[in-house]
Specification:
By secondary structure, this protein is mostly helical. About 60% of the residues lie in helices and about 0% in strands. The protein has five helices and no strands. Helix 4 crosses helix 5.
Length: about 100
Amino acid sequence: MTLKQQVPSSQIVAGILGMSSRTLQRKLDEEGICYKDILTELRLELAFYYLKHTNLTVDAIACQLGYAEARSFYRRFKHWTGRAAGFYRAKPTSLI
């Protein structure tokens, strides 16, 4: 399963980990984090990876991360980082 196919719910993740969703929630609470925060962090890390290491368009990256609309990703990325996603695109090295 990828984020593009379906953003996994905490219930799905708990099942993959072989525990109930309540047990997963309890373990996350013990760590002081919530599932939504983990999902946000994953999306941000993947966004940086795709921007720096692939030739995917920002629209394609939004799709890979499970956003139905690219503009939702644009707004969210700018909220997370304070900059537009294109700013983080790897710059080709100059030929000297």
